[in-house]
Write the structure tokens for this entry.
Amino acid sequence: MNNPKVLIAGAGPVGLTLANELTRHGISVRIVDKNSERTDKSKALVLWSRTLELFDDAGYAKDFMPAGMRAAGARISNGTDTVAQITFDSIDSRFPYALMIPQSESERVLEEKLEAAGVKVERRTELTGFKDTGTGIEATLKKKDGSTETVTADWLVGCDGAHSAVRHGLDFAFEGSTLESDWILADGEAVGLEPKDKLHIFWHRDGILAFFPIVGDRWRVVADLGVAKGGEKRADPTLDEVNALLKLRGSPGIVMSNPYWLAAFRINERKVKDYRKGRVFLAGDAAHIHSPAGGQGMNTGMQDAFNLAWKLALVIEGAAKPSLLDSYSTERSGVGEIVLRNAGRLTEAATMRNPIAQGLRNTIVKFATGFPAIRHKIADQLTEMDIAYPDSPLTVKNGHVENGPKSGERWADRLPAGAGGMKFTVLGPDNVVKDLAGKFPKLVTAAPAKEPTHKTSLRVIRPDGYVGFAGSAKDAAKAEAYLAALAP
């Protein structure tokens, strides 16, 4: 397919998720990446509960499971005493855990699924320029042999990372800053950490030391080294330097060996204002980068892809007005701001150096996390279960339902087969939902109520599992007006 409906620049986890979702809809795509092969590094390490739910509704969450391990929670300590314990088993999800999986494996799973659907990533193929003609995109690709190709597509999506060529082509400002502190990471085999199914975080007086389980005895270690000295990038750490930090800041007996990856880095906190201009969109690191605290970068990007995929597909299929796409930037930019802010706060709390401030922090956190409601709120935030769209143009406000999620909130149950990521689900009394599905066959899947409480309410649930409209069983006319505003 030389001239696809959608051209995707970047074949990391975000671009691969988008390509898979569009292909599942039957939308033709091309996905290009300037690198010669997918990453062999662990990089982003976790698939959170909300992301797993989206993959589950799409039908392929199970494909990730054999390559990862389940983490049950997190423990924060000062090296001797426990400051806080956070568990994930209390969250309201089909996946009450974090799936610890190296990014290299997430990309492998996604790329293999895409190839099985007949779409191959075009490696060593770089997007070097593009033009939005108003009716489509004309893009120039530079191939591995040095030749160039002009591609015509209806839409272009930049999933090409922090140095995005698509973002530069749009001349979008990447607003934010680089934190003036040095950090190191080490990925290797470690002993001395129990239990193995938890994240272990040490708030030492000299800085944070965090351990993330990968598989078996393999762990990721992240530590901050304080204010950066000079403008030059710090050299990557040696294994001896890493073990010296483990001895200083961790519990006795923690030792790392057989490193897979040792690196030094600095944290960038940046974001574009808009995720769209005309027929061009940005997703993932091309639109937002932030502190690794919370481990939400890749998940936020994947959820960008899910959000955009169903909207693009319905517009391309002629099932929805083009104006549906206006909601993408509004919704995901809002989420990006929240994630950026939360990650920054976590980083600031973990890296404070003043001993008095550290003691106060530990006392407050220990007291607060003694309350189950606060532990639950923290778990919901980490796992991205608290994401909602109350102010979206796709959310009807002031709808009244006695039980269950309101407009803008997440629908917890698995979506009906064929609806996940593809159509709106109308849930309510049989006659009402069948009538609405008949009036909007390209847009709606009917889900007759199975529970008594659902028979007295009426909901229109988006393809990504968020409630767009919620009302009583008598509000069929309002639900119809909601869908009519979306339909062409």
